[in-house]
Structures are given as C-alpha cells and as structure tokens.
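Researcher: Quick test of sequence recovery. Tokens follow.
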C-alpha cells in the first residue's frame, strides 16, 4: 500500500513539468518589511481539468491568467480556496502544518460547489515541488512565513447557470510578515449573516467572503475592526470572528461552537482544542449564546475572547459591541491566547517537539 503510494507520487513528481522564470523578482523584495499576502513569489502551480480529468500539474513563472469573458467563475462564483503557510527553521528546513487537512478541506469545499475533486497526490506533490522551486522565497525574519494560496475556479464557459466543464487549480504563494493585528474591537452582528443551514458556510467558497465585506464595512464605519457572526435564524449564537473561528473563555473554561453547515472546520481551531486537552484546560464545544457572553462580561467572568485561524493563529479581542453598548475584556497576565499561540507556532517553526504529528517536512 505504502509502496504503491510512493510509486504513484514518484511518477507524478517526474510528470510535473517545471518552467523556471528567466527574471527572478526576488531582489526587488524587502524581506524585512513584508506585509501580508501582497508580493508574490516567482512561480505558481497550474493544473487544468478538462474532458472529465485533471491534467498533470505544471509549475510556471507567476503570471496573469487569461480567461474567456463567459468563464463561469465570473458569473456564478464557482470557486474554492485554501489558506496555509510554509515555515523555515534556523537550519533552512521547510515545514508545512497539517497540509493534508487543507487538501481534504479543499475537496470538501469543491464537492459542495459542484467542482470536481482534485487527487490528493496532485495537491501534496504539486505543493512540495513548488516549495522546492521557490524555497528562497520563504522568509526567515521572526514570525514571517510563505503564505500559500491553493484555489480552484470554473474556467469553462457558458451563460447557462450550471457547473462548468473546465476548471483550473492554482497554487500561488506570497512571502508574508508576522501578522500583528493587535487586539481588536469587534461588533456582534444583529442583522447580516455569513452562513445558513444547508448553505456553504462550511466551505471555503469565494463568495462567502465577498458577502462579508459589506457588513464589515458598516462595522468599520462604527469604529469596530471585525464582525462577530451570529446564527442566521435569530442572531442568538456567536459563531465566527471575521474569517476565523471564535473562542470564549468564561472563568477557566475555553468554549467554542461546534462545526456545522455554518461554521468552518478550522485547522487552528481543532489544533487549539487538542492542545487545550493535553494541557488540562477545561474545554466545552457547544453553541455559545450572545446572552451568556453579555452576562459573563457584566459579572466579570468573561476573561478572554479570541479568533483562531491560519493568518494570525490567535487574534485577541479587546472589546466587543452589542446593541449600542461596548464591553471591555480584562488584560490578563496568564491568558490562554498567548500560550496557545506560542505552543502552535513553536511546532510550526520546528522550535519544539511535535507530539501531535502535525509538522510536515517538505
Ligand atoms: C470562515 C473561516 N473560519 C475559520 C477559519 C480558520 O481556519 P484555519 O484555522 O484552517 O485557517 C477560516 C480561515 O481559513 C475561515 O475562512
């Protein structure tokens, strides 16, 4: 079984055609001043689906993609994506964090959007080969990493509202600095929803994020940086923090909502849950009501709230607004957010042992 997989991957690696750029852009990049996801590495991986099958992936110089105006991505938003990071340790070794989980989630998202699933070996071997080609683009300054963006979109044409017959899988990468957003002030949403039962909230579908922009702009205009999404039915439960999963600490218990049609199965979220279990932090995975969060804030038992996701790992919340009132969270010396972030990043950057088997050497 293992031998077969190995043989298949070897064959695929041999099949990945690599065309290198003639003009590297690397000397134009200031690696000491990287923002998040705004400069792009020299190469990208592309892989087309046509005539009912995925072609072998190819690595080409990073370049614009030409599409027919009737490509279904433009009209029906048939697209899914992933977000992950590659890290370099002090020996120049390269690591990914739970990459197979991103691959599996991409296919879960693809299935929901009627996009053909991608063979795992194409994702894993393609990504490894791309990272080998652009290894020098992985930054080494403290907290920085190479942000990796795999995505699939409908390149097939037609104005008929139905799934396309052709797709493109691409992996593009962006050297990115440490994601210090600082503590944020957030608004608990009472009107808009990002997801509904039976919908696509659990998928990383492009349109989910477009739908968040307008309510977030309204929150920003009121002085908040992010929206805390609540359930679509009655806005009674808090569900996600912007494009992150949300955790609440009441006294010593860490609480997060269960994944569902509406809540994305975040890799950071599930890693935090496993670490908390090992560290003896009491954890509850259950729906969190807005009422209990307000009550806990009022009686002083609400100690922390934070978002969890690949980009920031953990993003602490300083205050939240609800129905015109702002509630501040206390400053703690021994907060869970900082210690959980350290535990995860130490594993990601190969600074600590990895008892969970999450680190993947490229
Ligand atoms: C809606 C949403 N929730 C949660 C997450 C966090 O997921 P992960 O920890 O896998 O990055 C993301 C980011 O991918 C997201 O887009």
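Model:
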């Amino acid at each position: 079984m293992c031998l077969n997989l190995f043989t298949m991957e070897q064959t695929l690696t041999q099949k990945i055609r690599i065309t290198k750029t003639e003009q590297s852009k690397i000397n134009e990049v200031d690696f000491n001043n990287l923002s998040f996801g705004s400069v792009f590495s020299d190469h990208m991986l592309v892989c087309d689906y046509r005539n009912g099958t995925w072609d072998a992936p190819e690595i080409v110089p990073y370049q614009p993609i030409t599409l027919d105006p009737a490509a279904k991505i433009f009209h029906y938003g048939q697209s899914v994506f992933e977000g992950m990071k590659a890290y370099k340790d002090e020996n120049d070794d390269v690591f990914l964090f739970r990459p197979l989980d991103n691959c599996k989630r991409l296919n879960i998202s693809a299935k929901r959007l009627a996009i053909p699933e991608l063979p795992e070996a194409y994702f894993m071997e393609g990504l490894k080969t791309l990272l080998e080609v652009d290894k020098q683009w992985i930054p080494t300054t403290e907290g920085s990493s190479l942000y990796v963006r795999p995505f699939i979109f409908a390149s097939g044409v037609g104005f008929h509202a139905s799934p396309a017959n052709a797709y493109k899988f691409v992996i593009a990468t962006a050297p990115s600095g440490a994601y210090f957003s600082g503590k944020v002030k957030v608004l608990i949403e009472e009107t808009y929803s990002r997801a509904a039962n039976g919908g696509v909230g659990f998928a990383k579908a492009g349109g989910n994020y477009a739908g968040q922009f307008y309510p977030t702009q309204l929150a920003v205009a009121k002085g908040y940086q992010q929206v805390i999404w609540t359930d679509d039915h009655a806005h009674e439960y808090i569900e996600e923090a912007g494009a992150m999963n949300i955790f609440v600490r009441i006294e010593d218990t860490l609480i997060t909502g269960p994944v569902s049609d509406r809540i994305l199965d975040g890799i950071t979220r599930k890693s935090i849950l496993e670490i908390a279990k090992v560290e003896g932090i009491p954890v509850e995975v259950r729906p969190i009501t807005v009422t209990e969060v307000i009550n806990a804030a009022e009686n002083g038992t609400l100690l922390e709230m934070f978002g969890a996701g690949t980009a920031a790992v953990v993003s602490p919340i300083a205050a939240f607004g609800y129905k015109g009132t702002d509630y501040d969270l206390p400053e703690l010396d021994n907060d869970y957010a900082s210690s959980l972030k350290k535990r995860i990043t130490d594993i990601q950057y190969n600074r600590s042992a990895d008892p969970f088997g999450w680190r993947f050497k490229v």
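The two ends are 22 Å apart (CA to CA).
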